[in-house]
Amino acid sequence: MSASARPPEVSADSNDAHWMRRAIGLAESVLYLTAPNPRVGCVIVRDGQVLGEGATQAVGGPHAEVMALRDMQARGHSAAGATVYVTLEPCSHHGRTPPCVDALIAARPARVVVAMTDPNPLVGGKGLARLRAAGIPVSAAVCAEAALALNPGFVARMTRRTPWLWLKLAASMDGRSALHNGASQWITGPAARADGHHWRARSCVVLTGSGTVRIDNPQMNVRHVPTPRQPIRAIVDTRLETPEDARILDGGPVWIFTCHDDAAKARRLEARNARVIVLPSVPSRPEAPNGNLRVDLAAMLRWMGEHDVNEVHAEPGSKLSGALLQSGCVDELLLYMAPVLLGDAQPMARLPALQNLDDARRFEFFEATPLAPDLRIRARVTQNWRELLRCVQPPAGPGV
Amino acid sequence: MSASARPPEVSADSNDAHWMRRAIGLAESVLYLTAPNPRVGCVIVRDGQVLGEGATQAVGGPHAEVMALRDMQARGHSAAGATVYVTLEPCSHHGRTPPCVDALIAARPARVVVAMTDPNPLVGGKGLARLRAAGIPVSAAVCAEAALALNPGFVARMTRRTPWLWLKLAASMDGRSALHNGASQWITGPAARADGHHWRARSCVVLTGSGTVRIDNPQMNVRHVPTPRQPIRAIVDTRLETPEDARILDGGPVWIFTCHDDAAKARRLEARNARVIVLPSVPSRPEAPNGNLRVDLAAMLRWMGEHDVNEVHAEPGSKLSGALLQSGCVDELLLYMAPVLLGDAQPMARLPALQNLDDARRFEFFEATPLAPDLRIRARVTQNWRELLRCVQPPAGPGV
Which ipTM was obtained for this model? Predict the structure, then answer.
């Protein structure tokens, strides 16, 4: 009650965060659309009034800044005296579209605020520098973490050359994903299952293992949320055992990563929309180097990075889940936890016994959201996230 | 922004909820103090002004209503025209203190609002009826769930004759509480461990198993939060194996529940502050009725109910955790989840394999709270909670 009686006190900083959150909301509206380009939102504001706004369109279409400038012009406004909020540093190079920074300089706003700098170390900061050189003041790193959460895969691909991978797991409170007799449908409820399709829809690649393909015969496409684009499906299939009549091969393209160079089988799979990629093998259990082999998962992610993959949604069984974790390929866990106890049953990820608690794989929780009756818990590898964040913030120091 | 421009619209109902939440806050301030009496808070309000407030004191001391009336008088007010908010129906019987309902009738407030009725089916509603008979209007069931959360154990003991038991577990995201070599200190961090002492402090009994006593030799008392009262410690000790030099026997009273009637050992333990209670045995694995025996845990809870125990904080190892779950003794899970994966390790609760997912023990999540770096997840048995809630709400129907 006392708060409403006082005059509103809004600092320039909190205004910046307010408008940047609106720009982030615009970028979220194109979460399923822009890959492999980043999702970007832009708002142009003068005296607390939105003059124009927009978000990046599908590949080849206009970027957010151009969409917002067009919207502004359609509403009969100019950018004079306005501030432009954009979730990513405007591009300064000629790609499929002309540089956004040229369009902004031509529009001559009073100021430009960006949430994060371009993660590409070769171009990062050049867009801001060109704006400054044209006499337009620039602020950076407003809502940087929220902006990074829009595009962790794009930033990962630009900086470390591999996609950002989250491992989707559905498990009981005691960490079990299936009974010993294999029963697993459904541990989680309809809300959690529909939510899982949101994460498939935003990814570039939905990844699973050949065991899941053979046993559950899933489609692995996006069905429970409307999407303008289907991700590529991918299978880790060490011995090239994917059946040619698997449902996953119906529809869009499928990548099959294997160590088994069987040209005849590969041809038959390729006649069914698949692309077979032969990769090196590594021991499937690092602790038993003379045992079974499997696809080198790190090599698979490097291959994906070279093929414009930003985000990987991995939804495998417990064996591949364990292998992805053991090989350090997992950046984030997307854990749907059901309010049940299953007792002696199959683990959500098959991992060897540890000798020391300090050797446990450590994450950080950053979200716990009810999806009745289940919980969605997100956890990430702290170091991997901090490294991306470092790459999209201007270097600290004098003169910046 | 539009909301602050409109005149405040506050209905009588939302005012009631506002003041009742304040009364609930007062009751929370005596969470560690009042057992076996319920925690109760009371606020007396006129024209939006608090005239007096208070909470129930330790056993033998004044109840919340009397504390609030005294506070009101000390501030120089009378209850004329005021509304009294109290989290539990005022008592109408002579216990250790005179009936609160008499004090309220003498004070003649304009209205009395209670969050829940007295759960004792023999007295429930009589306090409200006496107020009405004295011409004081009464409302009930305002914030009933929040009020029940103050006193689930008191309500359980009054209605089903057993305490409310929560099972405290600390585990990894994959449901493991210790490595196979036994290492378990510490899976969770200092904030989660301190929080666990809050739950010990509010309980009447802290329960563990003789295996934990022999292996970890814990004190099981309240140390990380200040408390005016220590709960009784209790041990499930089927074969009466608690060492006489166990640290848990230092300090306050300890109950030892056993099936092993060894008078000499019992005498030695009783010389060390313990009370040995011999109970019937049941098969330790219901699926193997000719196997090992253990203490009948349901009989133990009935015994506790007869001995004024409201809330049991169970903090056992995986074996007793499984036994409590299997015997239907667990009302609530208090799960501290650490952001780690332990892989092949000891389960948080030892439970047999199921043949059917429909047979899984089902709970409902009702809280997920970050306690960095961990998460506190609370889940309860829906049916048990609903049954308590039914017992503290006035029966629906005409004339109520």
Answer: 0.92
